[in-house]
Design a protein that fits this description.
Chains A, B: This is Homoserine dehydrogenase. Two copies of one chain form a homodimer. Chain A is of the alpha/beta class. In chain A, about 35% of the residues lie in helices and about 25% in strands. The longest helix of chain A is centred in the C-terminal third of the chain and has 21 residues. The radius of gyration of chain A is 25 Å and the shape is elongated.
Chain lengths: ~450, ~450
C-alpha cells in the first residue's frame, strides 16, 4: 500500500494564477485573446482565475491589438522573474533565446508551456532536468501537430500499454504540396509555389520540405512513446524535394500515394537488443490505409500498440488557432497543478534505448529503373536481389514508346543497408541504364 | 500569483500501490495478465510497483487462469476495505452492484478506475460527490470507445478550448451491422445474424441495436465536453432496427451512408438561452465526411471546437484488449497520483446547462415517400413544407416500374418539432400513399 498517501490540497483554490506570455506572433495573439474572452471558463476549469501579468516582445514600439499596452515589455527575464508569475508560456520560435528563457523560468520555479518543437527536440534533457529540480511542469502539447493531442495520448492515455510503432503525417506544408501533386498532377515546383502563395509554405521552405520540422516531431514522439531519449540529431531525415510527378504517377499505378511520414519504431537488432529508430522520409502508403486519405494540410498520427491495436488521430496540425488550443489546454493543466498540487507526468526515459543505426532498420523499397532491352535482363536483375537475400513482392516490366524497358520492383521487407547497397550495385550494373527513383514503403 | 504553491511531494516514491480488481471477465483477465507481464514498465511509469492485492469474482469455484488462486475472493467489500488497497478497478458490468462497490471504494478513500459506461452515465453525480468528498480520483476512459482517448481529450487536451459539437460512431456492433448492409447490400436481420455469429452482437442485442449503449457514451461525452450534467435518461435515443436495405440504397443514391451517431451539441433556444442536447439516431453522413469511411466495428469521434477546429479520433472502440489498454492507462494515472500527490481533473459541471427539448434542436430530414401520380403533386407537397418555413435542399422525383411516383426530399436545417409535425401532416395527406422512411442528416 501507499503508506503515506499525500492528500488533495485545495489550499490555493480560488487564488489567481499569474501568466507570462513570451512572444506575440499569431499564436501568442490568439492565446491572449482567448484567455480574455473565456476568462470565466478558465477560472472554472482551473479552480482560480488566470491573470495575465505581461507579454514580452522583441519590438515594444509596435502597436499590439487586444492587449493593454502596459502589459507589453521588452524585458522577458524581468517578467519571468516576477513573484506573481506562476506559469510562463513560451511562443517565440528559434532555439537559443527561448532555451535561455525557458531554463530561467523552470529554474525560478515557474511551470512552462511551450509550442517550440525545435527547442524540445534539441534540448529535452536539459529542460527536463531543470523542471525536475524545481518540481514544476514542462508542457509541450502544441509542439507536435498542434491541437491533435499526441503528447497527452502518448504520455497519459497509452501509459498502460506498449507502443510498437508511431507513424504520422506531421507536417502540413509538405502534405499540402504532395496532395496537390497527387490530386492535380502538378510537379513539385508548381505545388510549392501554390503552397507559398497560400501561406502554407514560408519564403524559405527548407525546414518543411527537407523534413526538419517533421524530424523534430518524430524525435518528441519517439521519446514519449518509447520512454527513451531521441533528439532531433538522431532522426534520419529525407525531404520531398526530389519527388517528381512521375514518381507520384508510378506510385498511383502501384496502388499507393506518397506521403512524408515521421516513423518511430522499436527494433530488435541481430544480437537481440532493443533499439529505437526515428526517421522521416517520403513513403508509399497503400491507398486503403487511413493515412492515405489525409489530404490538404491536415495532419494525422497512426499509433500501433500491443493492447489498444491501431489508433488514428486526425486534425489541423498547424495554424494560430489550433496551436493556441493546445497551448491553452496545457495552460489549464499547468495552472490546475499550481492551484491543486500535483504534477503532470514528466520526462521519463527509463527505457534508455540506444538509437538504431538506420542501416539496421527493416524497410521496403519501390525501385523504378530503366534497363537494357535484352532477353534475360529480368532474370539477371532478379538474381541480384536474390543474392542479397531480398525477396521481391512485385515486379512490373513495361516498355515505353521509345522502346526503353522499364522495370518497377517492390521488395519485401529487408535491412535498409542491404537494400541500399543493392540499389548502388544496380546503378553500376551494365544492365541498368538509369534508376529513376527509390522510395520506401510503409512496412 | 499562487501564494502558497503546493510543492511536488515524492514522499511515496518507490512505495507499492495496492490494486484490487473487481470482476474477471475478458477485460479483467487481460488487465491482470498485462499488469504481471509488464510489471517493470508499470513500476517505472508510476514511480512505484503496482501490486495486485486480490480479484473479486462471483464464482470462486471456477478455475481462473493467470492468477494465483489465493488472490481470488468472493467478498468484494472486504477486498476494497483492505488497508493495503489504494486503487480499485471495477470491471463487473451491470449497474446496481458495481455502484454499491464503487461508492464503497470512493468513500473508503480508494481511487477508482471503471470501464462501466452504464454506471457512469446513470449515477455520475453520486459518484463524483463521493470522489470529491474523499479527495480521490474516479477514472473512466474505458467507458467511452475503449482505447480511443475520448475522456482524456475532452477533460484535458481541449480544456482550454470551447467545444461546439461532438459526433461519433461509438457502438461497434451497430457500425458492423450497418457496414454489412452498406457494403454487401444485406438486410438488417441478415447482418445482425452475422454480427451475432461473429461475436460482435450479444444474444440479446437490445443495448446495442436500440442505441442504449451509444446513449450512455453520448451522455458522458456531453457532460465532459460542455461541463454540465447529462445523464443517460436525458439522451434522445433511436436505434437501427427499422433501417432497411432500401434505406441504405436510397441514401447511397443521394451521396450518403447511414451511421448510428451519438451527437452532442450546445444549442441556443428561441429565448437566447444556452442548453445542451445529446441524442443517438441513425444519421445520413455525406460520403466525403471522415466518419463515413469508418468501417466494420471501428469507432470514431469527431469533435468541433472553436480554436482547434475539427479533430477525429479513430480506433477499436470495444473488445478485451483495447478496453484493458484504457483501464491500464487510467490505472497508471490514478496510481501516479497516489504516489506523487495531485488529482486528475475531476467532475466539473459548472456550466450547469439545461437539457434542450429534442423538439427544439435543429436537424435535417431525408424523407422517402410514395405519392399519387398526378400533375401538380410535387408543387402541392412543396407548399406543405414551405408553409412550415422548411426549405428544401434537394427534391428527387422518380417513377418505379409499377408506375408509382416516389419523392425523395432532403430538407435544410429546421427545428426538429416542425420537421416531425410536417411529416405527420404528410402522412395524413391524400397525396401521400406511404412514407417509407425518415432519416436525419448530420447537419
Amino acid at each position: 500500500m501507499v503508506a503515506n498517501s499525500p492528500t488533495y490540497t485545495e489550499n490555493n483554490a480560488g487564488k489567481p494564477v499569474g501568466i507570462a506570455v513570451l512572444g506575440m506572433g499569431t499564436v501568442g495573439t490568439e492565446v491572449i485573446r482567448l484567455l480574455a474572452e473565456n476568462s470565466e471558463d478558465f477560472r472554472q476549469r482551473v479552480g482560480g482565475p488566470l491573470e495575465l501579468r505581461g507579454v514580452a516582445v522583441d519590438d515594444t514600439s509596435k502597436p499590439r491589438r487586444g492587449v493593454d499596452p502596459e502589459m507589453i515589455t521588452g524585458d522577458a527575464h524581468a517578467l519571468i522573474a516576477r513573484d506573481d508569475v506562476d506559469v510562463v508560456v513560451e511562443l517565440i520560435g528559434g532555439i537559443e533565446y527561448p532555451r535561455e528563457l525557458v531554463l530561467a523560468a523552470l529554474r525560478a520555479g515557474k511551470s512552462v508551456v511551450t509550442a517550440n518543437k525545435a527547442l524540445v527536440a534539441a534540448h529535452a534533457d536539459e529542460l527536463a532536468q531543470a523542471a525536475e529540480e524545481s518540481g514544476v511542469d514542462l508542457y509541450f502539447e502544441a509542439a507536435v501537430a498542434a491541437a491533435i493531442p499526441v503528447v497527452g495520448m502518448l504520455r497519459r492515455s497509452l501509459a498502460g500499454d506498449q507502443i510498437q510503432r508511431i507513424s504520422g503525417i506531421v507536417n502540413g506544408t509538405t502534405n499540402f504540396i504532395l496532395d496537390k501533386m497527387i490530386t492535380e498532377g502538378m510537379g513539385y515546383d508548381e505545388a510549392l509555389q501554390i503552397a507559398t502563395d497560400l501561406g502554407y509554405a514560408e519564403a524559405d521552405p527548407t525546414a518543411d520540405v527537407d523534413g526538419h520540422d517533421a524530424a523534430s516531431k518524430a524525435a518528441i514522439m519517439a521519446s514519449l512513446g518509447f520512454y527513451t531519449r531521441v533528439n532531433f540529431k538522431d532522426v534520419h531525415c529525407e525531404g520531398i524535394r526530389d519527388i517528381t510527378a512521375a514518381d507520384i504517377a508510378a506510385a498511383d499505378k502501384a496502388g499507393y500515394v506518397i506521403k512524408l511520414l515521421g516513423i518511430c519504431e522499436k527494433i530488435t537488432d541481430d544480437q537481440g537488443n532493443d533499439a529505437v529508430n526515428a526517421r522521416v522520409h517520403p513513403t508509399l502508403v497503400a491507398k486503403d490505409h487511413p493515412l492515405a486519405s489525409v489530404n490538404e494540410s491536415y495532419n494525422a498520427i497512426f499509433v500501433e500498440a500491443e493492447a489498444a491495436g491501431s489508433l488514428m488521430f486526425y486534425g489541423n496540425g498547424a495554424g494560430g488557432d489550433p496551436t493556441a488550443s493546445a497551448v491553452l489546454g496545457d495552460l489549464v493543466g499547468a495552472s490546475r497543478n499550481k492551484v491543486h498540487g500535483g504534477r503532470a507526468p514528466g520526462d521519463n526515459t527509463y527505457a534508455n534505448l540506444p538509437i538504431a543505426d538506420f542501416g539496421e532498420v527493416h524497410t521496403r523499397y519501390h525501385i523504378d529503373m530503366e534497363v537494357v532491352d535484352r532477353a534475360g535482363v529480368l532474370s539477371d536483375l532478379s538474381a541480384t536481389f536474390a543474392q542479397q537475400g531480398i525477396s521481391l513482392r512485385t515486379v512490373r516490366q513495361e516498355e515505353n514508346e521509345d522502346g526503353i524497358a522499364r522495370l518497377i520492383v517492390v521488395t519485401h521487407s529487408a535491412k535498409e543497408s542491404v537494400l541500399h547497397d543493392t540499389v548502388e550495385a544496380l546503378k553500376k550494373s551494365s544492365d541498368v541504364k538509369k534508376v529513376h527513383s527509390v522510395i520506401r514503403l510503409d512496412v
